[in-house]
Amino acid sequence: MTGPPEPAPDAARSLLQLAEDLALELRPGLKRGSLxxxxxxxxxxxxxxxxxxxxxxxxxxxxxxxxxxxxxxxxETLRDLLKALEEAKPGSVAAGAAAPAPAExxxxxxxxxxxxxxxxxxxxxxxxxxxxxxxxxGDRVESITYADLLRxxxxxxxxxxxRDLEPAQPVALMLQTCRDYFRSxxxxxxxxxxxxxxxxxxxxxxxxxxxxxxAGILNxxxxxxxxxxxxxxxxxGLVRALAPxxxxxxxxxDLRIPGGRADRLALKPGDTxxxxxxxxSTGDPKGVTLSHANLLANLRAMLxxxxxxxxxxxxxxxxxxxxxxxxxxxxxxxxTGLRTVLMSPLMFLSHPQRWLNTISRERGTVSAAPNxxxxxxxxxxxxxxxxxxxxxxxxxxxxxxxxxHPETLERFATRFAPYGFHRESMTPVCGLAENCLGVTFPPxxxxxxxxxxxxxxxxxxxxxxxxxxxxxxxxxxxxxxxPIPGHEVRIVDDAGxxxxxxxxxxxxxxxxxxxxxxYRNPEATRRLFDGDWLNSGDHAYSVxxxxxxxxxxxxxxxxxxxxxxxxxxxxxxxxxxxxxxxxVAVFGSPDPKAGTERVIVVAETAVAGDAARADLQKQISEAxxxxxxxxxxxxxxxxxxxxxxxxxxxxxxxxxxxMYQRGDFARAAPGVVRQMLHLALSAVGPELRRxxxxxxxxxxxxWAWIVFAFVSPLVVLTxxxxxxxxxxxxxxxxxxxxxxxxLGIRLTVTGLxxxxxxxxxxxxxxxxxxxxxxxxxxxxxxxxxxxxxxxTRNPILNPLLLRLGAVFVERFDPEQSLADTASxxxxxxxxxxxxxxxxxxxxxxxxxxxxKMGAFVTACQNAVPxxxxxxxxxxxxxxxxxxxxxxxPISVEIGEPIVPSGSDWAAAVKLREATRxxxxxxxxxxxxxxxxx
Length: 933
Prior knowledge:
The chain has about 950 residues and is α/β, with parallel strands linked by helices. About 40% of the residues lie in helices and about 20% in strands.
């Protein structure tokens, strides 16, 4: 007897194509070519019980085979379905029609678990593909292919192993952007080590001073080896006494063993792939520990959101010791297979037009830079340097790594529009090293979005209230998008409570890209974490789930209980004639006598003469006064190049504060005692208000639970025994409306006149536990509920729901789920109207989840209208995993009825898309399907 035949050679490919076609109907944001046989039907394809039926029908039609029922219903992956096909009747698998055209071949190593596997994947398939194009001072070009990088990295790895590098030992890497950097980085990984990028000296004359500043990092890592250039090697060796663990300073040439290969170590996704030291003072260095899994999760999420693939060209001058340059510009290119064109930061800083000219010449589509680089190009480059420039190919101009200034976005877009630059290409993003790189991204091609808010409301009351159009003192912030797929962010207040829309607080994040902590620094790691959330160190607020960064927490100045954001003051002072643009530091200096902080402005200038300098100080004070609602406490004029900055060009305000307190800057006269007394008294009121906000919030949360505890038993005792289904539902509605009045929550319902008299289905979005109360209070009593079957196990809710005529549905067992869906269809067929949450569940982060098909199939099979319902505000009242309600308004908007166009699957999909579009417009939250989640 022979067993079932093997599938035809193209069976797996055909199955993938069929599944992908259906998945794209269910999740339009899914990237074609991203599925494998091991993709989960539910999580990766978004296939619920009804969609599973549709998939099985398509499989059986195409292959002309009847799949075994148990195997088909129990299948969790496409590979399980392929095995079920193998058990079909002999010959049936191969008997299908010609296979559909295969999807476009993927150029991404979706199965790779480490950076080395990514490199090997490309080197094995396209060994001669140019991966990196290096430009030098004379614009000479040097190319590195994937095969080159893997081979040369192996030669470095052999040299490292010959020097007794042990697995998981850090290796310092102090090199400019050059071929040796890339081969050394890969070589360290191949040898089992951990690369630690350090920034190289800008001037060789300062090498000893520079390496001394790196001693803190070298001691933190205990790296036995440092790879650097020949110029740096000798003087760097002289300071090894500062880092006793550093055995040797070598060059790539010293290490390289031509033709050599180190024994391959079995790297795992959870192994550390990189130590990324954060910018700032090296007195307390913090090395972010990033695993291969962290990096690949971040790369995949960012590239998917930005829709970057192998056809793009990334042009970058960013330093490779900085996360945006290392991870964004290089490792992103390594993963996707796109070509990246790189130059050194010194080439940009000496001739900024080289960046733009290279984008023009190489037809670059993607590039990134901090805000200062865009401002530099917009304000300093003469027209003569821009002749022949063509920026029309540039579709993604990422702006991040420091505060994004709305004025810069406008200046750059306006200046370079005649050269083909599209304003929609400007893409402000939010990220940090502790999450590898990216945290939030906006939709590609949308262009910058800004928000003007009332200054006093934000700085005094922590509310981002939209400003009046004619408000000259409004603050403007730039939207930086939604969390990248698979990641979450939240904003919390001083008490650690999650904020609602337009409430200003501390930004936190979590997800697969998040670091496990700082290398050999448990105290800093402890401060980083808040439960399973990580503190970003940023302040922000959200609008409809989109994040608006609003200052670094450590840079925030609190004067008289009022928050002051230094970046806008620095921008205003930089515009004063005589001040070196971008060379201003604004910080708070504690004043124990006044009980608050003094606002200090340090500005670099070359202006000489007592009278001229006094006049400049006056102009600076006036410029700052407009934003401070009073003069700064002190204006310090500093010599050029004295304001401390990070390697990436960001102002080091904490370091400037230390210099000021040591007396390194020239000081103005201190404030008078009377002024300090006034400041101390003015701080009392705001601090009391802050305490009052926290106390009020906690008291309200306690009151809400008292209300729930009081009302819940009364609802059960009065509703359950009442005769008549309509009477029970009407009484429940009255109780729920009374509950919202007790809670002080304003519930607004619009569109009730749109509800038809006959049977219909209401489909609301689902974002909170409180949605059940909202729907009970908002909708007429003739509507029944579809609820999850798990509630039958609740001894209090089960009898109540049964008496209310609820229909229970199974969410996890496909066979039971189909039977339950049939019960819903039957209920509607008998003339009942139903409320069905098409998302089936909810989560903490804002956004519409994929819709399950039950509501839409039911509407189509019964030919009844479906009404989209947008619930807004309930997520902010009570988020998932939060048990402290907030007093905020909730609105419910019932849309126009949508009549199904047929009774088949295609009609149900069409109805779902129309419903989703209406709900998305009304709920004010992003669509997580079309946004790529």
